[in-house]
Task: structure prediction
Amino acid sequence: MTETQQQTRILVQAAAAACEEKKGTETRILALDPIDSALSDFFLITSASNDRQTVAIADEIEHQLKTKFGVTPNSIEGRRRGDWILLDYVDFVVHVFLAERRDFYNIERLRKSARPLTPAEFDAELKAELKAKTLAAREKKAAAKSKSAPKVKKTAAKKAANKPVAKKSTVKKAAPAKAAIKKSASKPAVKKVPAKKAVAKKAPAKKSAPKTVSVKKAAPKKIPAKKKANKKA
Result:
C-alpha cells in the first residue's frame, strides 16, 4: 500500500464517520476493482430519510475533511434537489441518497466486481494494513542497523591496531636518551685522571725520609766525648 492509497483510506474512513454522526443508514464502502474503475478507488454510499438530511450529511462530510485534512471535493452535484448528492474527491466518491433513490439506482448491483465493506470492516482492514506497514519499516531499520554494525567494529579495530604503532615510535625516539645517559656515565672516568696525578704528586713526600737518616748518622760523633771521660779517669 502506497502513501497515497493510505491517505485515501483515511479520508474515506473520516467521511464514513461523518455519515454516522448525521444518522446516515446502511452506510457501505465499495472497494472498486482497478480494471473497472477509471479513477476512483472507493465509493462511499449512505442513505437518508429526507432531502434535508441528505444535505446535512453532505455538508458534514465536506466540513470534516476540510477542517481535519484540508481536502475539498473536486465537484459537488445534486445539492439543490437533495435526492442524490454526489461529492467527487477523485480518489473516492461519496453518494448520499434518499432511501427510495438508492433502491432505484442500486449502485451496488451495477458494481458487481466491487467488494462491499461496512465501516467497521473497513476500519479493521486499515488498521491491519497500517500495522503490517509499521512492522515492515521496523524490520528494515533493524536490517540496516545490523549491516552498519560490523563496519563500526572494523573501524574501531583498525584504530586500536594503529595505537600500538604509535607507542613503538615513542620508544624508538627514547633511544637517544639512553645514548645520552651512556655519555654522561663515561664523563666521570675523565675526572678520575686528576686523582691519579694527585697520588703521583704525593710520592715525592716519601723521598724526604732519607733526611732523617742523615741525622741519625751524626750520633756516632759523640764517641770522642766518652773517650775524654776515660782519659780523665
